[in-house]
């Protein structure tokens, strides 16, 4: 049966059980099936879908009804001022992680023409590394991940975005990095406690456990990064760590015990403690 854009959108209610943004989500999926944009849906509501478009839309709606995240269904996610390819091998970049990019740029802006060396530990899709590399072509960014699948996708994103001042390193945290070489290290490591009930809810059910969960109440990777970065940061270089809303004190203690200075925490747009920065002392 042939259906129009308007009729396809009237099926939006099917997503009511999985999302509060069900109407918007059905528009995103239909626009993707039509290889078009949301504005076009409202400009031509009487346009008929081809058989192929209708099948693609139905398939995407079924996947969403099963709870699969929109970003994995469409294969893309907006971050900072660009779009990334994503797949189930990587975390879907979150808006709150833009605070990390914003803070890194604030610290480094006076040196935007200098040949600084930056690191993104646990790069996933490459979100943080690519945002920083795009900000200044003078900066050289090393994107590290333990997952070869994540690194392959991050490298593809770099190619699609034509970013060349970036290199990729398959390693556990600082293992593959040079000693005392970097002006800033940024990390959004896994920090949800193993066994946390949120891992069984919403988008998290579909994301790679290696990107989400950590032992010791979610602090094990943060602790390892704090320790190992002491060997790779230059004097007065910055370490920026994204963490859980309730981990501010624990992270500050880890940093203080390891000898860092100028420790401060910033809040995300929801007002939650989300990012702690610290300097490796002079
Ligand atoms: C929370 S995700 C962050 C992804 C991306 N930076 C972002 O903000 O969207 C954590 C990332 O750390 C990586 N990871 C986990 N353990 C690691 C380790 N021991 N060494 C390096 N990377 C690791 C995961 O593969 C995952 O890509």
Describe it.
The protein is α/β, with parallel strands linked by helices. The chain folds into 2 domains: 5-67; 77-279, Rossmann fold (3-Layer(aba) Sandwich). Helices cover 35% and strands 21% of the residues. The chain is built from 11 helices and 11 strands. It has helices at 5-9, 22-33, 38-43, 51-65, 70-74, 98-108, 127-135, 148-160, 215-218, 220-228, 248-258, and strands at 76-79, 82-85, 117-121, 140-145, 166-170, 182-187, 192-193, 213-214, 233-242, 261-267, 273-279. The strands form 3 sheets. Strands 5-4-3-6-9-11-10 form a 7-stranded mixed sheet, with helices on both faces. Strand 4 (140-145), helix 8 and strand 5 form a beta-alpha-beta unit. Helix 10 (220-228) runs parallel beside helix 11 (248-258). The termini are far apart. The mean pLDDT is 97. The structure holds S-adenosylmethionine. S-adenosylmethionine (SAM) is lined by residues 90-91, 93, 97, 122-125, 127-128, 144-147, 150, 172-173, 188-190, 210-211. S-adenosylmethionine (SAM) binds at residues 90-91, 93, 97, 122-125, 127-128, 144-147, 150, 172-173, 188-190, 210-211.
Question: Keywords, please?
Answer:
binds S-adenosylmethionine; Rossmann fold; 7-stranded mixed beta sheet; 2 domains; 282 residues
Question: What's this model, at a glance?
Answer:
The chain is built from eleven helices and eleven strands. The chain is an alpha/beta fold and 282 residues long.
State the shape. elongated
Which parts are unreliable, with pLDDT below 50 for 5 consecutive residues or more? none
Structural class: alpha/beta
Tell me the CATH topology of the largest domain: Rossmann fold
On the 0-100 scale, what is the average pLDDT? 97
How much of the sequence lies in strands comes to: 15-25%
Number of domains: 2
The CATH homologous superfamily name of the largest domain equals Vaccinia Virus protein VP39
Helical fraction: 25-40%
């Amino acid at each position: 049966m042939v259906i129009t854009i308007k009729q396809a959108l009237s099926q939006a209610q099917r997503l009511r059980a999985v999302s509060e943004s069900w109407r918007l989500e059905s528009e995103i999926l239909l626009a993707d099936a039509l290889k078009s944009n949301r504005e076009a849906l409202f400009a031509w509501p009487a346009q008929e879908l081809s058989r192929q478009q209708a099948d693609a839309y139905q398939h995407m709606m079924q996947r969403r009804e099963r709870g699969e995240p929109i970003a994995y269904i469409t294969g893309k996610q907006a971050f900072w001022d660009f779009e990334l390819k994503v797949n189930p091998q990587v975390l879907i970049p979150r808006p709150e992680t833009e605070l990390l990019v914003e803070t890194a740029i604030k610290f480094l802006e006076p040196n935007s023409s200098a040949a600084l060396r930056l690191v993104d530990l646990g790069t996933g899709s490459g979100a943080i590394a690519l945002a920083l590399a795009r900000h200044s072509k003078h900066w050289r960014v090393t994107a590290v991940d333990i997952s070869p699948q994540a690194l392959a996708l991050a490298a593809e994103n770099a190619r699609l975005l034509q970013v060349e001042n970036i290199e990729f390193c398959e390693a556990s945290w600082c293992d593959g990095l040079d000693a005392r070489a970097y002006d800033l290290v940024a990390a959004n490591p896994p920090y949800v406690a193993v066994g946390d009930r949120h891992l069984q809810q919403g988008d998290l059910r579909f994301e790679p456990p290696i990107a989400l969960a950590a032992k010791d109440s979610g602090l094990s990777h943060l602790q390892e990064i704090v320790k190992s970065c002491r060997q790779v940061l230059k004097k007065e270089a910055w370490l920026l760590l994204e963490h859980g809303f309730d981990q501010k004190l624990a992270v500050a203690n880890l940093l203080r015990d390891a000898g860092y200075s100028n420790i401060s925490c910033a809040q995300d747009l929801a007002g939650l403690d989300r990012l702690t920065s610290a300097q490796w002392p002079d």
